[in-house]
Amino acid sequence: MKKTFQLPKATDSFFYKKDRLTVDGVLLDELLERFGSPLYVYSGTSIRKSYQAITSSMKGLPLQICYAVKANSNLQILRLLSSLGAGCDLVSYGEWSRAELARVPRERRVLSGVAKTAKELESLFKLENAGVFSVHVESAMEFELIVLMANAMRRKLRVAFRYNPDVDARTLDKISTGRKKDKFGLTREEILDLAITYGDDDFVRIEGLSIHIGSQITSLKPYDHAFSRLAELKEELEAHLGRSLSYLDLGGGIGVQYRDERPISLPDYAALVKKHFKKVPKILLEPGRSLLASAGALLSEVVYSKERGRNRTLILDAGMNDLVRPALYGAYHEIAPLILGQTDAVQWDVVGGICESSDYFAKNRKLAIEGLPGERLAILSSGAYGFSMSSTYNSRPRIAEVLVDQGKVKLIRKRETIKDLVRHEV
Predict the structure, then answer these.
(1) CA geometry: angle at 317 spanning 344 and 331, to 5°?
(2) Which residues, at least 6 apart from 8, have a Cβ–Cβ distance to it below 8 Å?
(3) How far apart are CA 220 and CA 230, in angstroms?
């Protein structure tokens, strides 16, 4: 009797065709033959659909999407999103440089990040408006440095204060960012004090407010709470400045389905935005995970397996250096065989070859796999915070990336070599 495997609805660009797993109809096992294993594969169709879902739900709002580059920073991904109209949310000078290489228009970029250095700011201040639409300020000391440097270099720029509204996003502790104890943003009191002191500066113009309360949020309640506090602060700040702000950045964090989560309704989210912000000239959103997660998969081959009584261990050629989320967060990713066979599903611990006990992709996962070397699997929903968080730990070169888009298969990152690993060592 033919075995079946039910893929999550969220990964609709990955589907079986005559018992062989495909991405937008392209056979994944053939991609492994062509490009080697392990391998990251992305669906351009999925990215386009996710982008369209957000923009369609926000119709009627003065919206600019600034994609969170940290989710997946490949240049071809940035170019694809830019072609759809997206800008970039950047949290480092390195990400700014990637946006530059990808030719994302500077007027669609915002620069965030809690540790902008004087050296980085000096490089950006040589450009008109620091090479971005606006700089998002994360601390009082940072703002004072920006004012000092802008006046010394006589460079005008726009800024927004990142507001920490002290709202618990009800997500994982390690990806919550809007609580008072978190390192991000400024308090209401700090923002108002800075506005009183520097509100009429000749070079640094306070134009907006920004928030970001966390990632993988699956309830509207934290957003409602945060938006309410942001709307109140907006009125207070405008009263101190004696003028209106030109934009608000509402951050990102919209959750996706990895397992049995119920993501929030985008139309309901849009209705919440309209409820709190009816007369804002410009609204920015910073989606990352919601655009890329379901668009990607990590493909891997079985190297060995072990059976010790009831305990079965499947050892893959991919490791936590390639996809760290399960080891770091205990995150769940669906795992699917590339070819469906007649094997009964049994429980496996799925691990990598890294010399760490935490190097797990899954524990006690039912898989229709025999455990033979060369069997192939896809670790799904890994398009966001997959490759971008990968490393060369254990001196393992980083793997290749492939984009399947509009019927074309593109190698968008070459596989690293041992020479690449030691290139900068002296």
Answers:
(1) 75
(2) 257, 258, 259, 334, 380, 381
(3) 15
Q: Which two tokens stand for residue 367?
A: 């898989």
Domain limits, the chain? 9-43+293-422, 112-287
Q: Would residue 66 show up in a list of annotated catalytic residues for this protein?
A: no
Q: Which of 307, 273, 292, 271 is nearest to 382 (CA)?
A: 292
242-276 pLDDT, tens per residue? 999 999 999 999 999 999 889 999 999 999 999 99
User: Which pLDDT tens digit goes with each residue over 365-405?
Assistant: 999 999 999 999 999 999 999 999 999 999 999 999 999 99
Which of 355, 395, 406, 423 is flagged as catalytic?
355
Residue 241: what residue type? Answer: L
Task: Judge whether 248 and 273 are in contact, CB under 8 Å.
Answer: no
In degrees and rounded to multiples of 5, residue 320 shows phi and psi of: -65, -20
Q: What is the pLDDT of residue 2?
A: 45
The reply to whether CATH 3.90.1150.10 applies to domain 112-287 is no
**Residues 31, 43: Cα–Cα separation, whole Å:** 13
C-alpha pair distances (Å), 155 with each of 117, 135, 143, 169, 247: 17, 13, 15, 37, 21
What's the chain's average pLDDT? 93
* CA atoms of 423 and 27, how far apart (whole Å): 35
Q: Which residue has the tokens 């075995």?
A: 3
**What is the reported pTM?**
0.93
Third-level CATH fold of 9-43+293-422: Lyase, Ornithine Decarboxylase; Chain A, domain 1 (2.40.37)
Q: Tokens 């009627």 map to which residue?
A: 60
pLDDT of residue 175: 47
